[in-house]
Amino acid sequence: MIRAFGYNEFLFLVSAMQWTLALSAIAFVGGATVGLVIALARTSDIKAVRLAATGYIQLFQGTPLLMQLFLVFFGATVLGLDLNPWAAAALGLTLNASAFLGEIWRGCIQAVPRGQWEAASALGLRYPGLMRYVILPQAVKVAVPPTVGFLVQLIKSTSLAAIIGFTELTRAGQIVNNATFQPFLVFGIVAVLYFLMCWPLSLLSARLERRYALATR
Amino acid sequence: MASAYDTTDVPAPRPVSGEVVIRMAGVQKWYDSFHVLKDIELEVRKGERIVICGPSGSGKSTLIRCINQLEKHQKGTITVNGVTIDAHHRHLDQVRRDVGMVFQQFNLFPHLTVVENCMLAPMRVRGTSKQEARDIAMKYLARVRIPEQADKYPGQLSGGQQQRVAIARSLCMNPKVMLFDEPTSALDPEMVKEVLDTMIGLAEDGMTMLCVTHEMGFAKSVADRVIFMDRGEIVEQATPAEFFTNPRSERTRNFLGQILTH
């Protein structure tokens, strides 16, 4: 039986945005936490640590996110773990985001002039204090615009979680379309809803970048 | 090079007989195949003021940067205040607490105010309380004569002011030795004097100082000993009187001829 696309269908799509946002938020927090470790490892003095972090980044940047989600989702089953789509999507996106954020932040850490490391070391600060009080506060200022930019990518990436059965905005679109057979209308609305989530962030990113450019001129 | 100091009068040598604070023995360093420090032998006594000069690329900055291990040497021993630098992080910490350093590019922390720049190391390295760290910072900012700038950010200060803050920041750790790596080379000419005056004040208070500088006027009026380096070697060391009036080596004469004629 074919249903007409009505107010209820529209509401269903709008309410699915919350799952897209929730998944994005979890992936961002997880990705940021692991990403910081990756960024620190990439800038470490210890070669083995640096190489391991480089390998991690290349692995996740060099394979499609969809494959990573599949591997986490089906891999867990192979290992005997029963991972629900929620957990699999959150884990897969966290790993992926951590590789990208790690690489973005590595650049930001290395953008802090060498003289800052030297001055802090000469004052007797060891690595943890040097990072926490001198390098990272300066790196953060550089990092904010590209990080917000990456958040836009991440929100769009969550649409792939639909394929492993996690009901977020894209999956909700599929469900509504299967009932109404109005793909252009349904996916048009889905696209507009994504745009409404991403556009403010893109604006924010561009604005932060301009402000940063002014501050460092 | 223009200098605010008269280069003709050389004061009589000041007797220095304190204990040895820095001892470098057989120190060698390579950058890949480039031999940047060749068998450096150097003893610095308490209260001594040493100026190191030489052409660019002669290894003079590298030498003082080895003392607090911003550069690692490959051979030889460096001992600071009885602590020999080795693989133990504890020894390096000890040395860095005793040795202050002032850089050509100031290297103030731009995200912290002037007073916070000075408070950071006492609080985070020595564990001094915030209030006490602030008191110490204000004391040394007053000593370099810019206490009124305490709450500004480094970017709001002139180069000369920034360099004086950098000196105060080092002094807050109560170092036994101060290293200066071309402290006036990045300054506009009109700001050189205020920084040199601050350094002279330190010297008068008995601070042990090693200065890499091209300020020959400063060398003549303040140094107990002038060290000339070329191609990674200490070519000559002498009192300023001997060094400027009667240099022994040909290389020293060439160098002095080049810098003193313009």
From TrEMBL, chain A:
Alphabetized UniProt keyword annotations: Cell membrane, Membrane, Transmembrane, Transmembrane helix, Transport
InterPro entries the UniProt entry points to: AA_ABC_transptr_permease_3TM (IPR010065), ArtM/GltK/GlnP/TcyL/YhdX-like (IPR043429), MetI-like (IPR000515), MetI-like_sf (IPR035906)
Aminoacyl-tRNA synthetase among keywords: no
Protein topology in the membrane: Multi-pass membrane protein
Residue stretches spanning the membrane: 20-41, 62-80, 86-105, 142-164, 184-204
Localization per record: Cell inner membrane; Cell membrane
Similarity remark: Belongs to the binding-protein-dependent transport system permease family. HisMQ subfamily.
NCBIfam families given in the database record: HEQRo_perm_3TM
UniProt protein name: Amino acid ABC transporter permease
Organism for this UniProt entry: Azospirillum aestuarii
